[in-house]
Design a protein that fits this description.
Elements (H helix, E strand, L loop, with lengths): L3 H13 L5 H17 L1 H12 L3 H27 L2 E3 L8 E9 L2 E5 L7 H12 L3 E5 L5 H14 L5 E3 L4 H7 L6 E5 L2 H13 L4 E4 L5 E4 L5 H13 L11 E5 L3 H16 L15 H8 L7 E3 L3 E2 L4 E2 L2 E3 L17 E7 L2 H9 L6 E5 L3 H10 L4 E4 L20 E2 L4 H7 L1 E9 L14 H10 L4
The structure holds nicotinamide-adenine-dinucleotide.
Length: 458
């Protein structure tokens, strides 16, 4: 287990300053990159054992994602670490003003099971780039991946710099008693609340990367073939167990029937006539989630799919029609291969309706009309999203990734990760050339008049 003595060891290591030089950060990122590359087959194998994840998905969304993130970070790190010079206002002259990027200290990273490799290590890239020590707590539901993470971290880092602590609720609860300098959590909204409460005990700042119900909206102006192909890809990638997956679909009434037919064709194209036999369909993480998802499938409303096999943890890509907000499938984040399809007529009213729901992590619009694209961008509240595509925004290193409201607090990726794991320390260097007496007591009418003039009040 990991208790105070191990924690203090890491704090002491941080205090030596050894984690701070640019060269150390770059060398460790390079080493991490090399080990991930050389272990990529083992990583894919572990992900297959834990989730039956297809190799292509493991490569793109877990391994290549991290390689890209490390490459981008290494390329820009030197400039990110440079203090930013800012102008000094007239009233504060003479002097020089700068913002310095200080590492936070020892940080805790808690990961989920759905992209168990990527989501444990992507925050670590930011933490190391910013000069911190870190403990990673991967999900206990993906034990093979957790083991690989332990091996990789041991190959790259000294234990006082980065460590992995494996375990579930009990172990995480113990970790949450320590006085971390930051907690970075990826997981469900309900556990996010537990994390934030525990962090509040010690006033620890948190980044919470949570979930929610992310809508995809298709209007009659859209390219329906493209919309169907991309929606099927994004919804059933990792079998819907993706935080930014489209949770439900709203389609404009006049094109609903056409889109539903295209979605059915597209599912068959991508997963064949019997999706359970497809090598490209990831399995549901466990029996508990399988049962939770099955309860959301109202057989009366199934228009495609609906086949389930608990022993094989399989649920076929499923489309539901005639769904209302009162149905179980609309009561919580689905996080599985079930797509409820709802209809709308007026985009403005639909946006007003969705805005009454908790803020989603993502939102997507398929539309060729600029007015609709502008309305979506300006009026709908969501963490991040795409127009005429889905989920790809999260792989863009220059776009901060995170939610708002119940879908999260804070963001990361690229430069934003570096900032998330840094303290922006403000500093003014004052020169002793002049020392205006006006600020010092005893105050006088003459000093007051002078100050009023400076601040434009007379
Ligand atoms: P989860 O909240 O159940 O678990 C996440 C982590 O918290 C795990 O490491 C787990 O061991 C730990 N944990 C669970 N219960 C705990 C408790 N009572 N006390 C302390 N720690 C606890 O989430 P999950 O099921 O692994 O992941 C699915 C959820 O994560 C979905 O809601 C999904 O939308 C969200 N998610 C969000 C993002 C994002 O980037 N925003 C990414 C992936 C997943």
């Amino acid at each position: 287990m990991f208790h105070n003595p191990q924690f203090e060891q890491m704090q002491n290591h941080f205090d030596t300053g050894e984690t701070r030089p640019l060269k150390t950060r770059l060398d460790l990122l390079t080493k991490l990159e090399m080990v991930i590359k050389s272990d990529s087959d083992k990583i894919a194998q572990a992900l297959y054992q834990d989730l039956r994840k297809p190799e292509q998905e493991s490569l793109i969304s877990e391994v290549a994602f991290l390689i890209e993130e490390i490459g981008y970070t290494k390329k820009h790190l030197k400039s990110w670490m440079m203090p930013t010079k800012v102008k000094t206002p007239l009233a504060l002259l003479p002097g020089k003003s700068t913002i310095h990027y200080d590492p936070l200290g020892v940080v805790l990273i808690i990961g989920p099971w759905n992209y168990p490799f990527q989501l444990a290590l992507a925050p670590l890239i930011g933490a190391i780039a910013a000069g911190n020590c870190a403990v990673i707590k991967p999900s206990e539901l993906t034990p093979h991946t957790s083991k690989i993470i332990v091996e990789i971290i041991k190959k790259v880092f000294r234990p006082e710099h980065v460590q992995v602590v494996e375990g579930g609720v009990d172990e995480t609860t113990e970790l949450l008693k320590l006085k971390w300098n930051h907690i970075f959590f990826t997981g469900s909204t309900s556990v996010g609340q537990i994390i934030m409460k525990a962090a509040a005990e010690n006033l620890i700042p948190v980044t919470l990367e949570l979930g929610g119900k992310s809508p995809v909206i298709v209007t009659k102006t859209s390219d329906l073939n493209l919309a169907a192909r991309r929606i099927v890809w994004a919804k059933f990638y990792n079998t819907g167990q993706t935080c930014v997956a489209p949770d439900y679909l709203y389609v404009q009434s006049s094109v609903k029937n056409k889109l539903v037919e295209l979605l059915k064709e597209e599912i068959q194209k991508q997963f064949g006539k019997d999706p359970q036999k497809s090598r490209d369909l990831t399995r549901i993480i466990n029996v508990r989630n399988h049962q939770r998802l099955c309860q959301m499938i109202d057989n009366e409303k199934v228009v495609f799919g609906g086949d389930v096999d608990e022993d094989d943890l399989c649920i076929a890509p499923t489309l539901l029609e005639g769904v209302s907000w009162q149905d179980p499938v609309m009561q919580e984040e689905i996080f599985g291969p079930i797509l409820p399809i709802l209809e709308f007529d007026d985009l403005k009213s639909l946006i007003a309706l969705i805005n009454k729901e908790p803020r989603p992590l993502s939102a997507y619009l398929f539309s060729q009309a600029t007015t609709e694209q502008t309305m979506f961008t300006e009026k709908l509240h969501f963490g991040g999203g795409c127009i005429n595509d889905l989920i790809v925004h999260l792989s863009h290193p220059e776009l901060p990734f995170g939610g708002l409201g119940s879908s999260g607090i804070g963001s990361y990726h690229g430069h934003t990760s570096f900032l998330t794991f840094s303290h922006q320390k403000s500093l003014m260097l004052r020169y002793s050339l002049f020392d205006f007496s006006a600020r010092y007591a005893p105050y006088s009418q003459r000093k007051l008049n002078f100050l009023k003039k400076i601040f434009g009040l007379s």
